[in-house]
Design a protein that fits this description.
five-stranded parallel β-sheet, about 140 residues
């Protein structure tokens, strides 16, 4: 059962990369990660998304430490909800790798998909940027 005092969201990989590479703790991507850590955002994911996180975070050019990767993956596993995809057939995606994020979001009603790349997803009110989800958190007095 969902907790009305939490926001449920699929977090796109680009938001995670931005947070882990940005030392400004007040940046919106870092505020998203902080909201996960304090239980105000419950991440939604599946095995494919977790694998994508691990694969991308290991890119040598990103220089993200193994400790940071392990900590993030542990956080997702600890606080997140693993769900199955809900197939969608009536949407167009510029990058087929992004479909999983959208379909996992579709598995949980009243949830969000948080991304830094809005153009990669259909225009829907539940597809939001890190800035927008931080505003939603503030409106709900969760940060």
């Amino acid at each position: 059962m969902k907790d009305a005092n939490k926001i449920y969201a699929v977090i796109d990989t680009n938001v995670i990369v931005s947070a882990l590479m940005n030392s400004n703790k007040n940046s919106n991507p870092n505020q998203v990660i902080h909201a996960i850590n304090i239980g105000h955002i419950t991440p939604i994911y599946n095995d494919e998304i977790e694998s994508e996180y691990v694969r991308v975070l290991h890119y040598p050019k990103l220089r993200i430490s193994q400790e940071q990767i392990n900590t993030f993956i542990s956080t997702i596993r600890k606080f997140g909800i693993k769900v199955n995809r809900t197939k969608v057939a009536d949407e167009i995606f510029p990058d087929p790798d992004d479909i999983v994020f959208y379909e996992v979001r579709m598995s949980v009603d009243d949830s969000y998909l948080v991304t830094g790349n809005l153009k990669h997803f259909p225009i829907k009110p539940f597809v939001v940027t890190p800035t927008q989800i931080v505003e939603i958190l503030k409106e709900r007095n969760l940060i």
